[in-house]
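Worked problem 6 (solution included).
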Amino acid sequence: MRKALLRLAIPNIIANLSIPLLSIADSAVLGHLPSTIHLAAVSLAGVVFNFILWSFNFLRMSTTGITAQSYGKQNKEAVSVVFYRSLLIALIISMVIVVARNAIANIGFGLMNPDFGLLNVAMQYFGIRIFAVPAAILNFVIVGWLLGVQDSRGAMIVVVFENVVNVGFNLWFVLGQGMAADGVALGTLIARWSSLFLGVAIVILRHRQWLVKPVWGNIFEREGLIQVFSVNGNIFIRTLSLLAVFSWFTYASSLQGTDMLALNTLLLQFFIVFSFFIDGFSFAGESLSGKFLGGGKIKALRYLVRTLMIWGAVLSVIFSLLYLCCGKLMFSLLTDNSSLIEMAQSRRLWVVLIPLVSFAAFVWDGIYAGMTHTAAMRNVMLVAVGGVFFPLYFGLEYILPDMNLWIAFLTFFVARSVGMTLARPKQLQVHKNQ
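Solution. The predicted structure is:
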């Protein structure tokens, strides 16, 4: 079990760690241009693209869970049907986004209301990168399916390849060809489609034994479609709710001034760093929990949950101690602003608590997704957002105005952890006669 977990988790962690490489490279190449408008435009358009990609990331989670369960049953036809059905859904969503790209841009940039010069550059960037979205969404399915058939190494290759190619082309277009935001967009476009083709090649070369000739009747089979739309719909609602919390976190920070926005953005990076590592175990949990459930191995499933919780707890303690002991050093690596470092030091407690209060929610996310226990995942998220986060934020607004946002944010993760523990699937509930 432990070897299987590490075999799946380590490639996922490596893939996750390659993601910041792209952001750092983009900021570096654009940050050295004479005008800051290009960096600002990419950041602005990035908000729109993050919303799109976060919203449709459910395709990866649902594909992993359903595929892993079919894989656990050793049902080759079902594994194959999941692949074709998910690709078809991703293709339809992609076509709608491309067709509606002008409306999406108008709404997205309209809400942010940038000045005319910034808007022009952002629209130029958006106009190129929007055609990379279909490849990104289709890749959600490729990566999700690879994780479902327990091939986290293949998934890692796809993700790392995309980010490395993206960095390479961004550097070449901006520094070598004299382009700016448009060069970064073009680099992303090439990288997305290149990684998609690589992903398809990996599927065919490494797992063609799991792919049978597509039969339209099976792809459009009623019960299968109901399951797919139900699982995807639940994860979609859950993801939008989570996005609402992070969006509000940024918005509420901005209400307290530029310094507080910069401070909270800095502190939130510690959450992101921790998530890169714990998500590796969460993804492994998706793959194995679906496999064990599909194969009827309930004892192994329960052992998996216990192991993931123990490892998650150990990892959270390590990160909390690291943040406690090396917080100032890590702050100084992120910024050289002495006043910002001093402010961050005074609020270091929030950073230390992040791993401790959030690890169980990450682990449960993987287990719930793998077991396609998504209705409960959705319900717990809605309660945590509507019943905990926002009531605490507004309830403490005048009592603890300097702490209400972080108290609400951290308690939100506690609520999710407790809620998912209580609402865990019946296969994980121990009864007296067991």
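Discussion: The first helix runs from residue 2 to 31.
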